[in-house]
Amino acid sequence: MYTKNSSLIYTSLDNVISGAGIFGHLSDSNLGRKGSLTMVCILNTITGTLTSLAPNYLSYVTLRFLTGFSTGGVGLCAFVLATEPIGPTMRGVAGMSTFYFFSSGIALLAGIAYLFPEWRQLYIASTLPSLLYILFVLPFVSESPRWYLVKGRIKAAMAIMSAIATTNGNHLPPGVILALDEDLCSPAVTPAIKNKEAVSGCVVDIIRSRVTRTRLFLSVAINFMCSVVYYGLSLNVVNLGTNLYLNVILNSISEMPAFMLTTLFLDKLGRKPLTILTLWFSGFFCFLGSLIGNKGAWQGVRMVCSILGIFGMAGTYNLLFIYTAELFPTVVRNVALGCTTQASQMGAILAPVVVILGDWWPFVVFTVCGMSGGMFAFYLPETLNQPLYDTLTGMEAAENDESDATTSV
Fold it and tell me: How far is CA 202 from the centre of its chain?
């Protein structure tokens, strides 16, 4: 059972890993958020349809590789495109609301699979949403004004902001213009409504910057450990000795209230405290699960510990998307999210190996990952009600100003 399923998981996640990295870079560079999302949807439509026509196993595997490759860019491109134009007061709520659609999509997929049990029909039916999205949704979606701004296309960014204001029944006041944060840091520079030279960035720039380098390493580590626990607890149901189907249903249901509670407390507690709290909450119940036997009535108690562990980690897993997006400037935001997504998929690859250990060992590993992730989060800055910076220079200048203010006090 593990050999076959694990090989399928590894193959699928390897493709997602490569896709997340490549489309994360393309989204920050020439294609943009909307352009990258359009490309991955087109690739999904083509490869998904061709998969249903695959004449042999080799062509099937090749097409599944390409489908997994394109799928790796869907989530991060769509998430950033949806949240970048939103202000700091509503960004958390808007970001968390996107994950309800993700969960609803999984539930919808189960219904589609029930209606189309034949695998060729299933591939066509599951590919249709991508085609419908291209035809009926993407034409009405605007490119991120922040991406236009860092690419020097000031007029295009202003046009989108004006359209957003008009849609909301408002208008931009006369004389209001968009400018990069690095321009505002220099009093000698007077922003103007004209196109200028584009600002670019890559993962090397993130590592070179003293501000973002630590953030990237910590975010990658936290996402990796969170994924080990999140996917590991889901797969570990086979070791609990309880009803497999009941356990899977309860695990899925436990995620929904986690999204709701995270949304409620996101702007009250802040990103950093909530990340630490959810990681330690999950780690605590995994620790209890490691102490409880797997016989008789204790099986049910261990199952409850597993469900509560997933409850906490589900909140963390989705919160990290919002937190990571706010930790990095626009010019490298998708690249950073691509790196953390790759780390998450590496954790998902490791999860079946942890589950194979059996007995109480998986819970021990999950405990270490949850508690360690919470400790790493202590070293990340809080981003609640903070602006989304556009460039590395602007973020570094703001960090220097905060350091100087703290020193003077």
Answer: 18
Interval 256-309: pLDDT, tens: 788 788 888 888 899 999 999 999 999 999 999 888 876 767 777 888 888 888
Cβ-contact 27, 80 below 8 angstroms = yes
Tokens 């490549």, residue? Answer: 22
Q: Which residue has the higher pLDDT, 338 or 275?
A: 275
Count Cβ atoms below 10 Å from residue 366 Cβ, excluding itself: 30
**Start-to-end Cα distance in the chain:** 62
- The answer to whether the CB of 391 falls within 8 A of the CB of 297 is no
Those residues whose C-beta lies under 8 Å from the C-beta of residue 51, and which sit 6 or more positions away, are 60, 63, 64, 67, 123
Lowest mean per-residue pLDDT among 58-62, 63-67, 112-116, 237-241: 237-241
Phi, psi (deg, nearest 5) at residue 270: 100, 160
Rounded to an integer, the average pLDDT of 43-64 is 91
Asked whether the predicted pLDDT for residue 193 surpasses 60, the reply is no
